[in-house]
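Q: Could you fold this chain for me?
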Amino acid sequence: MTRPPAFVDEVKVSLKGGRGGNGVTSFARQPFEPKGRPDGGDGGSGGSVVLRASGSVATLVDYHHRPHRAAGRGRNGEGDLRRGSDGDDTVLLVPVGTVVRGADGEVLADLVTDGAEVVGAAGGRGGRGNAAFRTSSRRAPRFHEFGEPPQERWVVLELKLVADVALVGYPNAGKSSLVARLSAARPKIADYPFTTLAPTLGVVRTDAVDFVVADVPGLIEGASSGRGLGLSFLRHVERAGVLVHVLDCATYEQRDPRDDLRTVLAELRAYAQAAGLPELLERPSLVFLNKIDAGADTAEIVRDDIAAEGFEVLEGSAVTGAGLDRLRRRMADLVVLARQQRNSEAAEAIPRPVLRPAGRDSDDIRVERRSDGWQVRSDRVERWVVMTDLDNPDAVAYLQGRMLRGGVERELLKAGARRGDPVQIAGALFDFEPAPDGAADEDDVDP
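A: Sure. Below is the predicted structure, expressed as structure tokens.
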């Protein structure tokens, strides 16, 4: 008998794109012309790691067991202007509702719809072959570029279930039984605390609307600060448009349902404040007094007090089915209201940021004074350096021209650098030698 997959709703994953392929130095060979025109082809671009939301995936457990994912590298270029093939992308399927965070906790992408995707780690671009460096003043370039190193990063994948209705309440309040009676879901149900170790989703069908309901595993006092199982699953309440507080009327001698409600509300309030969701407790909600088959007297005692707090109160039993038709209809009404509110807010909302390959859009040059010389930091310039064959004098001369045209020399002089000062760029060490005026080759265009 196979075990069902574990429910994992937060995992740290290492993503690595594919390295770009190298260009090549090559010359056409023709009769009586040993070295003809340059014909070295470019390297292929490396593949990217793409995160894609899919309704066919329900958990992040696969990434818990295999946290390191990489894309294919690009192939090297060849002679006769043959470009290397691009590396294959690696597509990682994640559940709908997955939030992608950087190592610093910043939200980078929010994949809330089926098919939504984002580039988690970009592949490096392919290096240019020597044919790309032929100009009117450089007829026979004897150098090429290396492929660009890929982007690497650690990201945190956090699953927040996308449900219309969240059933919240103390352990053993009967939330899983309600999901089972209202939908076709078949969660594990037992008479001991913390039976539910993973949220259960069920589709409820009504004449007015179909909606998804989720039972949030039992909350207890202190859940918002990490006690019990609550902290692990409170995040799943965030996306629910409707909250249904399920109270147990069969345990009045041990616990007062009114106290249970106050405790759960306090934990939701604390979590909402910590998560920056002040509107969480303002969402449409109602209270369902469950297990009246075993606690009808309790329902009579607490009903008016709870209604006095401003809640709509329904009662019934997940065991006998009493009151569930009315509950189903009222949940449907609130879902319609919540969806209208959500659509209105979405029309005015600013789109969430998405992951963007680092180092592709910034041309800023920052010069820092160090005890042993100078440090130049620039996404673009550092890419030039790592893609250059520093053992090839022709390639180094071209790099010097690029940096002159790109303003590196100007920024160093502005910062106070002098001839002969050591300058470090992308781990490579150079001696600063300002070029004479007009030394740059204007035929070159830098990507």
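A (continued): The radius of gyration is 31 Å.
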